[in-house]
Design a protein that fits this description.
Blueprint lengths: L4 H6 L24 E5 L1 H6 L3 H10 L4 E7 H4 L18 H12 L3 E7 L18 H14 L12 E4 L21 H19 L4 E7 L18 H11 L7 E4 L24 H12 L6 E6 L13 H16 L4 E7 L22 H13 L5 E2 L5 E5 L1 H4 L7 E6 L5 E4 L5 E5 L7 E7 L5 E8 L1
Parallel strand pairs: 1-2, 1-8, 2-3, 3-4, 4-5, 5-6, 6-7, 7-8, 9-15
Antiparallel strand pairs: 10-13, 11-12, 11-14, 14-15
Helix pairs in contact: 6-7, 7-8, 8-9, 10-11
Length: 458
C-alpha cells in the first residue's frame, strides 16, 4: 500500500541553510528500514573533488551508492584470463577507489554491469548484447570476486544488478526485429542469467537484481528516428515468457513520474510503472515468475529543478516531492532501496535533479532527504523478538582492520564481548538474553575506532 499523506503532514518543509540543519521526521511515519543514497558517477567517482562529494553524500544520510561499471570501458581488450579478478586487461582503478571510499564512510556500493565491448559482440555498439553469454558471465565473476572481501585492500561489495534500462533501445538494441517482433526481452534473459551466474560464482553471498527497467515504453516498433522501447510491465512479462525460471534476488525499477514536474503520487497508466503502481507490479512479477515476495530496489528516482531545467519544479517542490517519494518507499514492505539521481548538478549532466546546485549550494531537498534518511537507516536492523543474534554492518571498521579482526561489542552498556569482523564488513552480534525493544550497540576495533548502531527487536 502506498503511504504518502501521513508523511507529508509529519514533516515541516526545510529551508536552505547550514548543513547541520536536519529535518526531523517521526519514526512512526516511516516504519521500514531502507537503503537510501545516490547515483552520480561524475561527482562521486570521476571528479577531482569526489572525496568531498562523498562526504556530502554521507552527510545527506546516504547508505548506498549506485555506480555503473561499463564492461566495454573496464575491458577494452579481451582478457587472457577473463575470470581472474586482476587480469591486466581490466581497467577498474576508479571503481576500486569508489569502493574503498564508500566503505570508509559506511556506505554500501551497488554495481550495475552494462555495456558490451566490441570484441564480445562483433564490433557493435555497447548497447548490443554479447555474442556469447559466457563472456559476460566471466566478467561478472571477475568483478564479484575482486570485491568479495577475500582480497586485502579490495572491499566487499554485496549488491549487483544486470544492465541498465534494457527496455530502451538506448541501452539494449534491437528492441524489435525487422518483422516487428519483440526480441529484447529474450536477449535480456541471457544477459540477466549470465550476470547472475557470474556474480554468484565470484561471491555466493552477493545479491543480484535484474530489471533496472525504465518507467515507461511504447511496446510497438517505432517509425522514423524515435527510440524503440517496451513498457516495464510488458518487458517483465515477456522476460518471464522467455525464461520463467530466471534466477534473481530482486527486481530493480526506475519509477520516475511521466513528466519531470509531476508529483510522486501521480497515477501511472499500466503497464508503465511509477511509485503508485509498485504493488501491482510486484504482484505481477510474482505471478509471472511463480515466486513469492519479490523485493523491489528503486535504483533511480529524482525530480529536476528550475531554472536550469525549465520542465523541472521549483526547489521547494523538489523537497516536498523527495519527502513524499521516500515516504512511499518506506511505507511499502516490498521496497528495500531508493537511489536518488543525482547528488550535484553539473554542466555536463543533462539531469538537474541534484540536491546540490551547480555552484555547490544545498537545495532544500538536501535537508529533507537527510532527515528521512536518518530515520530509515538500514544499518540499524530490525530483528524478530527472541532472535539469538543480529547482523550489523561495520564497513567503517572494515576499512581500517582486516577481516577476522576482533571487534569489541557493547550492547546498551552491558558487558563487552568480542566478535570477529566478517569478510563482508559485517558483524554477527549475539543478543543472548537481551530483552530491550531498542538496543544501543557500540563496536570498537583494536585501534579504538568505533561505530554505533541501534538494533530494534519486534
Amino acid at each position: 500500500m502506498l503511504v504518502l499523506a501521513g508523511v507529508g503532514a509529519a514533516l515541516a518543509l526545510a529551508l536552505p541553510g547550514d548543513e547541520r540543519e536536519v529535518v526531523r521526521l517521526p519514526e512512526a511515519e516511516m516504519p521500514g528500514r531502507l537503503l537510501v543514497g545516490f547515483q552520480d558517477d561524475p561527482s562521486l567517482r570521476w571528479d577531482a573533488d569526489r572525496a568531498s562529494m562523498l562526504d556530502r553524500a554521507q552527510r545527506a544520510g546516504a547508505t548506498v551508492i549506485r555506480t555503473t561499471v561499463d564492461w566495454s570501458v573496464a575491458a577494452p581488450r579481451r582478457p587472457s584470463s577473463p575470470r581472474s579478478p586482476f587480469d591486466p586487461a581490466y581497467r577498474l582503478a576508479d571503481v576500486d577507489d569508489l569502493a574503498r571510499q564508500s566503505q570508509r564512510r559506511g556506505m554500501e556500493l551497488l554495481i550495475t554491469i552494462w555495456g558490451t565491448p566490441g570484441w564480445a559482440n562483433g564490433g557493435q555498439e555497447p548497447n548490443h548484447a554479447p555474442a556469447r553469454a559466457d563472456d559476460l558471465a566471466d566478467f561478472a565473476q571477475a568483478l564479484a570476486d575482486r570485491y568479495s572481501g577475500r582480497h586485502p585492500g579490495y572491499p566487499a561489495v554485496r549488491l549487483f544488478s544486470a544492465w541498465n534500462e534494457p527496455n530502451l533501445e538506448l541501452f539494449l538494441a534491437p528492441q524489435f526485429d525487422v518483422q516487428g517482433r519483440s526480441v529484447a526481452p529474450a536477449a535480456y534473459a541471457r544477459i540477466a542469467e549470465a550476470t547472475y551466474d557470474g556474480v554468484k560464482r565470484g561471491n555466493s553471498d552477493a545479491l543480484v537484481a535484474i530489471g533496472e527497467t525504465s518507467a515507461r515504453g511504447r511496446d510497438t516498433p517505432a517509425s522514423g528516428p524515435a527510440q524503440e522501447s517496451h513498457s516495464p510491465g510488458t518487458f517483465a512479462r515477456l522476460l518471464a515468457d522467455a525464461d520463467p525460471e530466471l534466477p534473481f534476488d530482486a527486481w530493480a525499477q526506475h519509477p520516475y513520474p511521466t513528466r519531470p514536474n509531476n508529483p510522486p503520487a501521480e497515477p501511472v497508466r499500466w503497464p508503465g510503472v511509477g511509485l503508485t503502481s509498485l504493488e501491482r507490479f510486484g504482484n505481477a512479477l510474482e505471478d509471472w515468475f511463480g515466486r513469492e515476495e519479490v523485493p523491489l530496489w528503486l535504483t533511480e528516482y529524482g525530480h529536476e529543478t528550475q531554472p536550469v531545467e525549465e520542465l523541472g519544479v521549483p526547489a521547494l517542490d523538489q523537497a516536498r516531492y523527495a519527502r513524499e517519494a521516500l515516504g512511499a518507499a518506506a511505507g511499502n514492505p516490498r521496497v528495500r532501496m531508493l537511489v536518488w539521481f543525482v547528488l550535484r548538478d553539473s554542466p555536463g549532466n543533462p539531469w538537474q535533479s541534484g540536491l546540490i546546485d551547480q555552484s555547490g549550494e544545498l537545495k532544500p531537498a538536501f535537508h529533507t532527504f537527510r532527515g528521512a534518511a536518518r530515520v530509515l537507516d538500514a544499518r540499524n536492523p530490525i530483528v524478530p523478538t527472541g532472535s539469538d543474534s543480529a547482523l550489523v554492518p561495520a564497513l567503517e571498521l572494515a576499512y581500517r582492520v582486516p577481516s577476522g579482526s576482533p571487534i569489541e561489542v557493547t550492547l546498551s552498556g552491558r558487558r563487552a564481548r568480542s566478535v570477529p569482523l566478517r569478510a563482508d564488513g559485517w558483524l554477527e552480534v549475539p543478543l543472548g538474553d537481551v530483552a530491550d525493544d531498542l538496543v544501543e550497540l557500540e563496536a570498537v576495533d583494536v585501534h579504538g575506532n568505533a561505530v554505533s548502531r541501534r538494533i530494534r527487536l519486534g
